[in-house]
TrEMBL record:
SMART domains: malic, Malic_M
Protein name, per record: NADP-dependent malic enzyme
Domain Malic enzyme NAD-binding, first and last residues per copy: 164-401
Family of this protein: In the N-terminal section; belongs to the malic enzymes family. In the C-terminal section; belongs to the phosphate acetyltransferase and butyryltransferase family.
Organism: Mucilaginibacter corticis
Chain intervals for the UniProt region annotation (Disordered): 1-20
């Protein structure tokens, strides 16, 4: 993708809708006057008094125990320098987002107008009652050292400067593994460190703890070698001062060195320097966004190298996101008073250990990799590896207990592991997983209405991301004009204009004529019909020229579905198609059907719809738990709708005994497991909430999903058209680019499933 589009995308991402990336969501009911009496005055006085009597009860009655402050003064923001506290806020919000999605930790980001140590320390210390932990971020050296030292000494909650210790922990783990692969011993390796700032000093300290000898380590800053005679350096850096004969420059130091650690600036290392290193060298070029030497350049410089960078677009990403969510998770869960050396080393070994174990298929899928295996290109785990939370947080918590800083003890580690796993349940990652499934086997997707900016933008995104190969239907000139005017970089892509006729038009027309000649269609009309994009696109899919069709942005639903039904037809045994929405809610995904096609289904049609939807949910690797909805619960009301749904459930139980399905049922019982279990313990949903809701008719389904989308803040992915022999998916009028990308992704997964049949 071109840079200007990427930049604009990033700006849009932050500004669209509610500006920024985070919000505060109440965790208790707030619906009634009674709720509010408890949430605030007078009810709130009770927990206040309990905490006043016993201050530790603050963990029992408030969010403190799961709340981390991400605090910066904006003096060293990523590699962007001293850009000020306001400009650091997107990074701090981003960090909050990562804490949440990777470890379910809540974050308040605090950007302080405080440059001096005293001012900064005074403010942060005063925040202790609010937070369970303090993550210092992007504070320049050497101030960061003194700030952290004082806060650690003066506060009773864990304080960690992530740029120092997060980087140290991750690169320490990577170093252990890289040495193992390269056959090097830590106490023998000669190491060159470029950079002498927050990250470099802290990394060097952890390397010494791991066995590296101080006498084998040389460090440089922007002014050259750190030597004892330098008068411009503080104590933190001077502890790494060396005097070595024959070493003045970085190039001198690199000769015969085993390991290079870059925490300085981009492109300061040359291929010649790498070639001068010892056999099987290890190079961690961690400066952001440009590493000390580009990944590609490094691997072409010599074959025996292990190279890691801070970037996500190359193998071996050394990134502190592998650490901070899980380190704080473990520390909070045992109410640790600090994050000490024992806990950091436990994290190092846990992270290093994960990389040596077989890689779960979900991780291969997430990175579009076939077979990730411990070796030169996989020395540390990938950020999306869910084993990080279970293994790193447990290791940190155990180390906190063993080293005496825990104020709460965990005894049942299996239960704790299960609890950790539940914090990153698969559900909220559904869209990401579906995208990964799509990327594992991209398909050719034809877009019926391509002379439209949103379609073209979506086509570019799915192409860039490796989800699909787009084929565009429309006026070539117009499409090219839009691409030019909007500076899209869509590259080589097939554009077909059905109006002009193509070498397939006649064949498609003949096919259509054959199918419809006894339904009043003449050959002349069939030829006319083939200038319509939806008909032409459906024929492309039918004839295998494309794997899926995306249509419908500008036409109504029925007009768009008709060509697909006439040309492609329904799957064997399927009498009617149906429409489903995947609703991404704060409680996880819930599938809704039928929301788009069948106005008033009969009992048999309701059964068909349920079967189609249940099968489709399985395609997304989710076990469907289906509720057939009504305004009645298990016979509590009479009337055509409860009776219809009851009959459908009976038929489903008889014909599909393995299907988890129940009803008739009201929506709140379907979605609330304890409500259902307390009142209807016999339900075949067996104590779990439904994740698939079948509506008795189109109006209830359609109204429900639109309400949820509008006032329930759920993201609606769909409508996913079910029951066709080949994949055709219809966009809602005026879909957004994101919605189109989601539909294409679903279409690709659908095409994969249909190809496997
Ligand atoms: N991959 C990761 O996970 C992380 C990467 N980093 C990266 O590490 C780098 C340093 O970050 P941080 O320690 O927080 O920042 P600091 O500002 O604290 O330190 C930067 C250090 O690099 C030195 N330096 C700058 N340019 C050069 C150069 N050309 N040659 C040698 N030394 C140089 C500076 O020297 P002087 O003191 O003389 O100015 C200083 O010692 C950044 O690029 C950052 O993006 C940081 C944290 C995590
Ligand atoms: C990764 C990180 O924390 C930094 O570059 O500052
Ligand atoms: Mg940082």
């Amino acid at each position: 993708m071109d840079k200007s589009n990427r930049k604009q995308d990033a700006l849009n991402y932050h500004s669209k809708g509610r500006p920024g990336k985070i919000q505060v969501i109440p965790t208790k009911p707030t619906n009634s006057q009674r709720d509010l009496t408890m949430a605030y005055s007078p009810g709130v006085a009770e927990p206040c008094l309990r905490i006043a009597e016993n201050v530790d009860d603050v963990y029992k009655y408030t969010a403190k125990g799961n709340l981390v402050a991400v605090i910066s003064n904006g003096t060293a923001v990523l590699g962007l320098g001293n850009i000020g506290p306001e400009a650091s806020k997107p990074v701090m919000e981003g960090k909050g987002l990562l804490f949440k999605i990777y470890a379910d930790i809540d974050v308040f980001d605090l950007e302080l107008n405080a440059k001096s140590v005293d001012e900064f320390v005074t403010i942060v210390k005063a925040l202790e009652p609010t937070f369970g932990g303090i993550n210092l971020e992007d504070i320049s050296a050497p101030t960061c050292f003194e700030i952290e030292r004082r806060l650690k000494a003066e506060m009773k909650i864990p304080v960690m400067h992530d740029d120092q210790h997060g980087t140290a922990i991750i690169s320490g783990a990577a170093l252990l593994n890289a040495c193992e692969i390269q056959g090097k011993k830590l106490d023998k390796i000669k190491m060159v460190i470029n950079g002498a700032g927050a990250a470099a000093v802290s990394c060097s300290k952890i390397y010494l703890s791991l066995g590296v000898k101080k006498e084998n380590l040389v460090m440089f800053d922007i002014n050259g070698l750190i030597t004892p005679n330098r008068t411009d350096l503080d104590e933190m850096r001077l502890q790494f001062a060396t005097e070595r004969k024959g070493i003045d420059t970085l190039a001198d130091a690199m000769k015969d060195a085993d390991v290079f650690i870059g925490l300085s600036a981009g492109n300061v290392v040359t291929p010649d320097m790498l070639r001068a290193m010892a056999k099987n060298p290890i190079v961690f070029a961690m400066a952001n966004p440009e590493p000390e030497i580009a990944y590609d350049l490094a691997i072409t410089s010599r074959k025996d190298i292990i190279i890691a960078t801070g970037r996500s677009d190359f193998p071996n990403q050394v990134n502190n996101v592998l650490g901070f969510p899980y380190i704080f998770r473990g520390a909070l869960d045992v109410r640790a008073s600090a994050i000490n050396e024992e806990m950091k080393l436990a994290a190092v070994y846990a992270i290093a250990g994960i990389a040596k174990k077989p890689v779960p298929e979900a991780v291969n899928l997430a990175y579009n990799a076939k077979n990730l295996k411990f070796g030169r290109e996989y020395i540390i785990p990938k950020p999306m590896d869910q084993r990080l939370i279970t293994e790193v947080s447990s290791a940190v918590a155990k180390a906190a207990i063993a080293s005496g800083v825990a104020r709460k003890v965990i005894t049942d580690w299996d239960a704790y592991t299960e609890e950790l796993r539940s914090k990153v349940g698969d559900d909220d990652k559904l869209l990401r997983n579906i995208t990964n499934i799509a990327k594992s086997n991209p398909k050719r997707v034809v877009f019926a209405d391509a002379d439209n900016y949103k379609i073209l933008r979506a086509a570019q995104i799915v192409k860039d991301e490796g989800i699909a190969t787009p084929i565009l239907l429309g006026d070539k000139q117009k499409i090219k004009q839009i691409i030019k005017e909007t500076e899209l970089e869509i590259g080589d892509v097939e554009i077909i204009d059905p109006h002009l006729g193509t070498k397939r038009s006649e064949e498609y027309a003949q096919y259509y004529f054959k199918k419809r000649q006894r339904r009043g269609i003449t050959l002349f009309e069939a030829r006319q019909v083939m200038t319509d994009h939806n008909y032409y696109g459906a024929c492309m899919v039918q004839f295998g020229e494309a794997d899926a069709l995306i249509s419908g942005l500008s036409k109504n639903y029925a007009t768009t579905v008709k060509p697909a039904l006439q040309i492609i037809g329904t799957e064997k045994g399927v009498r009617r198609v149906a429409g489903m929405y995947m609703m991404i809610t704060q409680k996880g995904p819930v599938f809704f059907g039928d929301t788009t096609v069948n106005v008033n289904p009969t009992v048999e049609e309701l059964v068909d719809i349920t079967v189609l939807i249940e099968r489709s949910v399985k395609q997304f690797n989710i076990n469907p738990r289906v509720a057939i909805l009504s305004y009645s619960n298990f016979g509590s009301n009479e009337g055509p709708i409860p009776e219809k749904t009851r009959e459908a459930v009976q038929l489903l139980h008889d014909k599909y005994p393995d299907m988890i399905v129940d009803g008739d049922m009201q929506a709140n019982f379907a979605l609330n497991a304890s409500l259902l279990a307390d009142n209807f313990p016999f339900s075949t949903l067996k104590g779990r909430a439904a994740n698939t809701l079948i509506f008795p008719n189109l109006e209830s389904g359609n109204i429900a999903y639109k309400l949820l989308q509008e006032i329930g803040s759920a993201e609606a992915v769909g409508p996913i058209l079910l029951g066709l022999k080949k994949p055709v998916h219809v966009l809602q009028l005026d879909s957004s680019v994101r919605e189109i990308v989601n539909m294409v992704t679903i279409a690709v997964v659908d095409a994969q499933a249909k190809a496997d049949k």
